[in-house]
Amino acid sequence: xxxxxxxxxxxxxxxxxxxxxxxxxxxxxxxxxxxxxxxxxxxxxxxxxxxxxxxxxxxxxxxxxxxxxxxxxxxxxxxxxxxxxxxxxxxxxxxxxxxxxxxxxxxxxxxxxxxxxxxxxxxxxxxxxxxxxxxxxxxxxxxxxxxxxxxxxxxxxxxxxxxxxxxxxxxxxxxxxxxxxxxxxxxxxxxxxxxxxxxxxxxxxxxxxxxxxxxxxxxxxxxxxxxxxxxxxxxxxxxxxxxxxxxxxxxxxxxxxxxxxxxxxxxxxx
Amino acid sequence: xxxxxxxxxxxxxxxxxxxxxxxxxxxxxxxxxxxxxxxxxxxxxxxxxxxxxxxxxxxxxxxxxxxxxxxxxxxxxxxxxxxxxxxxxxxxxxxxxxxxxxxxxxxxxxxxxxxxxxxxxxxxxxxxxxxxxxxxxxxxxxxxxxxxxxxxxxxxxxxxxxxxxxxxxxxxx
Lengths: 270, 173
Known about the structure:
Oligomer: heterodimer
Helix content of chain A: 25-40%
Distance between the termini of chain B: 21 Å
Radius of gyration of chain A: 23 Å
Structural class of chain B: mainly alpha
Shape of chain A: globular
CATH topology of the largest domain in chain A: Thrombin, subunit H
Largest interface: A-B, 30 and 31 residues
Number of domains of chain B: 1
Largest sheet of chain A: 6 strands, antiparallel, barrel
């Protein structure tokens, strides 16, 4: 008995090893998706301050480029303003007035993992809530996954669980943009009917079907079109409009008008 | 004495974790290659430490990095496994008497032995890390590439760290 106790005491580190390793593996594999999301969120929100500090240091180096982008966007907004003369567009603009935009800064971002996440420095107290669309001056970035008080976590295009409804510009055929991992500049547009008229170089934009994104926000350009194995749909390679590795400021699209549409969508998806 | 070494270790842990989370995690050469330099702490565990101590330090080092990288358990699992084998790996490269206490380094072990020790320890850790990270396992070639090139990159980081610590040690004496 005594020698057994001796053995246990002398080799207690082995039991400790098993305990710690089990604990780690439970953390790693025992979490279901919801728990993983919660871990990620709290970990991201907890480290928000830290990421903010780091991105504050790095921000100055990108100012010149950031300025250029903003000037360009200003110019295109100015152009739109001039075009807003005929009454039809004015009416359209009025009907869109329930759409709002919240500017936020990206403080943490990854593009090289299999599932990437972005943290932004605005949260529920700034009016952000789950499911809002996020885009940059260049185009679509992702959708808000969780809104903390001061920070939010965004599910970018470069995440396996993201799916955004998109269409070819000036046409009505639409599909869903997904990302299969790997190249952070290329995503795939799925479920596009096989008879749709898509060719290389076409521009892909948001549909505006749900209230997540406004209509016609650029997503990317078509680089390759091929028939899917089932023969009914097309698989389309899309070169993303946004360089996801290089995000500074983004806009969060808030829309209070279409809650009913979203509710319908949610009921449908259940 | 005990308190001093505890505080020093704690500072090393915080420093390495910050370095890893804030800067090294962002490096991704060719999309695959990320240095996991934080295991430097485990590399440097001296031979007088208890096995329990080694395991606990490594576990918390990994856990803290996990908390800030959004990867629950990944670094904790691979760092703890490495900590389990670290004392054995030291003995592979240098023969010690019962009472010899060394901190693994190029001076205490000899340059070639230390390089071998570093390579083996890094390879072990990175293999476990990338296997756990890629489950469910799909593409073995990509996995192998990740392991090999990340090991090399971490190895280079450690050689630089060793060089800095040796030359600053010379200046002090």
